[in-house]
Amino acid sequence: MTDDSNIWRGIVVVDVDLVWGALDRRKSFEQTSGLAAPRLSKNLNRRRHRGANVREIAAMDMEVDCQTESLRDMFEKNLLDFSMGKAKAAKLVRDLVNSSLAEEGRDGDAKVSLVMEAIQWAEQQNLAFLRQSLQARLIRLYNDLQRFTSALELSTSLVKELKKVDDKDLLVEVQLEESKSYYSLTNVAKAHSSLTSARTVANGIYMPPRMQAALDMQSGVLHAAGERDFKTAFSYFFEAFEGYDSVEEKPDALRALKYMLLCKVMLDIPEEVQSLLSQKLALKYNGPELEAMTAIASAAKKRSLAEFNEAFEKYETELKGDLVVKKHFSSLSETMVEKELTRLIEPYSIVDIDHVTSLIELPRDRVEKKLAQMILDQKICGTLHQDEGALIVYDVAPADATYETAVKTIHAMGQVVDGLYDYAKKLR
């Protein structure tokens, strides 16, 4: 790796037997590698003398000077010195890579190089399963770094390979990441296809709650994006929220809750946002993400475009920085313009367009086009007089219930007469 004298610290989960072996070979480990030996807690040593032989968590604080040797060299020199089996070595490498990727402040290219070196080491050791799992982790890393094309290139070949070996758990994970990549590249149709394949495979095996929640989350995202079916999307987000909450994945649970609030706003029922946040499960979640959605809901409820724009400026990171919310920003903006125009013209029968333009602080051309569109969509009943620069609004007459009932009765009688006629023809 090329990091400038960075120190790589990894927290890994290992078997207690492996810990005891590491203790016994501490001296040889230091002499062989020149690395700081794992600092193991005294409690584990006491448990060894008590005969503990169950799986436990031990912290290994490995310090590696990345200027002097690469990660792959460290694997070759040190991991096999533990005299462990291939399965344990693979698990140790995987956990070491994951813990290093979880560190904050590490450059994206450095993370990619780290995983690539681990993949090369796995190939040299003929650890096919480890290589595949690391490639799946690399796909997820590409998505996190917004390198969606690279993620798709790798996932295409890996999916074919996983289907041959029938590794369904890893296949679901890769197809889910593939769906996310397609969605981010605005190819909703292929995103749906990848997600459908993942859910089909998942239906035949046991899915951990976290992975099931991830599938539900992506289903909600795609329903909101493609079909704009926010009611169904809300149901999926709710399932994802409960799933993440059950396994204490708070960041993901918070994101699911945020999307639930977004659905309420898009369904034009922003008044339900506060009641949703007051539910038992949601009470323990807070933060700027929820504050941002609450501000958007408040603006929608008041039909205030100014408050809406102010909320997006104040919470730009939480709203425009979120890919899902960002994709609905233009739709939200147009909806808020319609709400603002409706609020402004409601009390009047004749409205001066220039006056409306000054109040809403938008270009006159855009206001005229939006009013014309609202008239065509029957959202307002009126006529635009461009010569006079005015909008004439008509009162909408309430539908006559008696007339509708009479029409339905006549239609029903016609069906009865037709039925009697057909019956009479059969009697002849």
From TrEMBL:
**Positions of the PCI domain:** 233-398
Q: Which domain of life is it from?
A: Eukaryota
Give a GO cellular-component term.
proteasome complex
Is this entry keyworded Transmembrane helix?
A: no
Query: Which Pfam families does the UniProt record give?
Result: PCI, RPN6_C_helix, RPN6_N
Return the InterPro entries for the record: 26S_Proteasome/COP9_Components, PCI_dom, Rpn6_C_helix, Rpn6_N, WH_DNA-bd_sf
Q: Where is the signal peptide?
A: none
What's in the keyword line of the UniProt record?
Answer: Proteasome
Please verify whether the record's keywords include Cell division: no
Query: What family does this chain come from, according to its entry?
Result: Belongs to the proteasome subunit S9 family.
Q: How does it assemble?
A: Component of the lid subcomplex of the 19S proteasome regulatory particle complex (also named PA700 complex). The 26S proteasome consists of a 20S proteasome core and two 19S regulatory subunits.
Q: What is this protein called?
A: PCI domain-containing protein
- What is the organism field in this record? Steinernema hermaphroditum
Q: What is the lineage of its organism?
A: Eukaryota, Metazoa, Ecdysozoa, Nematoda, Chromadorea
